[in-house]
Each structure stands twice: as structure tokens, then as C-alpha cells.
Amino acid sequence: MQTIALSDYTIYVGPIETGWQEFLTRKKYTQILVIADENTQTHCLPLLIRALNGQAFDLIHIPAGEQHKHIGTCQHIWQQMLNVGLDRQALVINLGGGVIGDMGGFCASTYKRGVDFVQVPTTLLSQVDASIGGKLGIDFGMVKNSIGVFCNPKAVFIDPAFLTTLSTRELRSGFAEIIKHGLIQDAAQWATIKGISQLDTVDWPKLIVPSLLIKKHVVEVDPFERGLRKALNFGHTIGHAVESFALETSEPLLHGEAIAIGMVCEAWLSQQQGFLSTADLEEISAFFIQIYGHEVLDEANFAAYLHLMGNDKKNEGKKINFSLIGAPGQVHINCSADADTIFASLRYYQQLAG
Ligand code: NAD
């Protein structure tokens, strides 16, 4: 069991039973409530139940998927919390990917002005990214994560055993955030990553811990995203727009798949602004296409992407804000680009198809 201490909570990496026993020595709770979705109830709850070792709990179960990360599902969760008589000395366990972590954490931190919660991330994406840093929330209208709060969990339990039931597509989605962490903060991690060609042979725990340490560093320096934390938005300005748009279609993209597209476009913007060399741009683009393939983006939708970017909460005034990269491991925050340049970056991605 490895522990990573943040200022007010601990991340336990390893078998959840061990971390859970250590956590319970710190505080006793009157009641435990587990929030799971249909997949984590099937695949992950049995492992959690073993760790709970006979402790009683209530279960709220919600449908799986980003399309349920909205206020209607929160109302269901809050209602169930009231129905089971959850009091303020209770603990909520969010068992699932980033959707459960963001939404369950948001419901817990607002219910009766806040009850304690812990994150048990069960996807690669949530293990390296979503479960750390205290950003909680839901989508509203077509705008991703537009309603939410900052609130830290009491602990995070990262057990790589959960990853064994995850699909390759979901693993690949989570990998995008690991790639991002390397590109923005850690040239050595990027050097390891770019040697990967087959996801089924990757030793995930070896990549998870360095990635967690990067995220920990960034969120500790800047918990409320006033400076360095914006670095984590590399690929996300365009990626979120592509993701939000696709979410309304019959072929939604996973978060990491959309962010991978965003990182290619924003790497091009980085090269245009003189931060990134052409050789690095080409290497980064080729790597993303090799791992993620190429998604056709219809030029007729570019204006809609731009409109979605205009709603991004990272913007200041009318300017669309970007975090761009320099040589691998270096990041430039508070950059902006005009509409024509953003369209050109999408066209750059398009022409990689050939
Ligand atoms: P997700 O929560 O939708 O999980 C993906 C799918 O995998 C779901 O169908 C889920 O039921 C299933 N699943 C989860 N664990 C499983 C397991 N062990 N075995 C089998 N199936 C399993 O998606 P995600 O990719 O984990 O998270 C994406 C969300 O995270 C987005 O809403 C994004 O906005 C958010 N996010 C938040 C932050 C943050 O800082 N708060 C950072 C990055 C992303």
C-alpha cells in the first residue's frame, strides 16, 4: 500500500481493504451510503463489500454514463439520502468513474450543507485525474461541468484491481489524462509513454503513481485554478467542446477520446504560437493518431464547437482561454486564439486522417 498525503486528505494506492482499515482508525461514522452505477454495482461493489468487512451500508444506484450527470439525477440522489435518513455524521462512498465521483461528491457536499465523502475511483481516468483535486459538479444544458463546487474528499482509494473489468476503450480514454500529465509537467513520463504502442501490455500501476504525483503537485500549488492548475486544461478547451457536441449525437465520444482530439488541435496552436517545435508537434500528433485512430469532424459543426468554447468557464471576458504546451514537460497558461486560428487547428487535425 502506497500513501500520498495531500494537505487535508490521503490517497491510498493499493488493495482497498488495507486503505479502508487504516482510514477507519481516524474517524467513526454513524452510517455509510454507497453511490454506484449499474456497472460498478456489478463489477466493483463485491470488492468494496469485502473491504467493508461486514459493515452495514445503504446503496443508491443510478444509471451509468455522462448523459445522466445532470440535476435530475442529483434530485434522485438527494431524495434517496433523505429517504434513508442520512445524517451529518454519515459517510458517502462514491464507487465509480468520474461521473459518480463528480456527481456523488457534489450531492454529498451540498446535502445538509455537506457530509463527508470518499472517492473510490474505478476507471483509469478517475484514478489518475477526476478523483483528486476537489472539483465536483454536473453538466447543465450542453455545457459540461458548468454547475459545481470545490470540495475535497476525506480520502481517495485507488485500487488497480478495479481496472480488470474495464473495457479497452475506457482504459484508452483514461490514458489521455496520463499522456496530458506527461506533456504538461514531466518530460520523463512522456518519454516512457511515447514508447507505448499496445494498451493491453501496459503496466498501469507504474503509470498511475507518477501521474497522481503530477496532479497532486498542481492542485496543491493552486487548489482553486487561479494559476498553475489551469495547466491541466491543456486539450480541454477544444476537447470539451467536441465532447459536449458529440454527447448530443447518436455517437458520443468518451471524455479522453475527445480530449485526445483537443490535445492534437491545441498542440498545433502551441506550435503556431512558437512554444512547440514542429518536430515535437509531429511526434505528438502521430502518437495520438496511433493510439486513438482518427475521428472525422464535420466542418459544418466547427461554428457550434466555437460557440461551446465561448461558454467555457475558463474564459475571461470574451477571450477563449487555452493552456498550451512548450517542449514536453512545459506548459503556457492564459493563452488565447481567435476564431480563424481555432478553425485552422481543427483543420490540422482533419488532415491527419490521410
Ligand atoms: P464514467 O464515470 O462514465 O465511467 C465510464 C464507464 O465505465 C461507465 O459506464 C461506468 O459505469 C463504467 N465503469 C466504471 N468503473 C468500471 C469498472 N471498474 N469496470 C467496468 N465498468 C466500469 O467515466 P470516466 O471516464 O471515469 O469519467 C468521465 C467524467 O469525469 C466526466 O464527466 C468528466 O467531466 C469527469 N472528470 C472530472 C475531473 C475532475 O477533476 N473532477 C477530471 C477529469 C474528468
Write the layout of secondary structure elements.
Elements (H helix, E strand, L loop, with lengths): L1 E4 L4 E4 L2 H9 L7 E6 H6 L1 H8 L5 E5 L8 H13 L7 E6 L1 H13 L5 E6 L2 H7 L4 E6 L2 E8 L4 E4 L9 H18 L1 H7 L10 H18 L14 H12 L7 H18 L5 H15 L9 H9 L10 E5 L5 E6 L2 H13 L3
Parallel strand pairs: 2-9, 3-4, 3-5, 5-6, 6-9
Antiparallel strand pairs: 1-2, 7-8, 10-11
Helix pairs in contact: 1-3, 6-7, 6-9, 7-8, 7-9, 7-11, 10-11, 10-13, 11-12, 11-14
Bound molecules: nicotinamide-adenine-dinucleotide.
The site of nicotinamide-adenine-dinucleotide has 31 residues, from helix 2, helix 5, helix 6, strand 8 and helix 7.
Would you summarize the structure shown here?
By secondary structure, this protein is an alpha/beta fold. Helix content is 47%, strand content 17%. It contains 14 helices and 11 strands.
Counting DSSP H or I runs of 4 or more residues, the number of helices is 14
- Count of extended strands: 11
Q: Could you state the oligomeric state of the chains shown?
A: single chain
CATH homologous superfamily caption of the largest domain: Dehydroquinate synthase-like - alpha domain
Low-confidence parts: none
Q: How would you portray this structure in words?
A:
The chain is of the alpha/beta class and 354 residues long. It has 2 domains: 164 residues, Rossmann fold; 179 residues, Dehydroquinate synthase-like, alpha domain, CATH 1.20.1090.10. Helices cover 47% and strands 17% of the residues. It contains 14 helices and 11 strands. The strands form 3 sheets. A 7-stranded mixed β-sheet has the order 1-2-9-6-5-3-4, with helices on both faces. A two-stranded antiparallel sheet has the order 7-8. Strands 10-11 form a two-stranded antiparallel sheet. Helix 7 packs across helix 9 and helix 11 runs antiparallel to helix 12. The chain is globular and about 55 Å long. The mean pLDDT is 95.
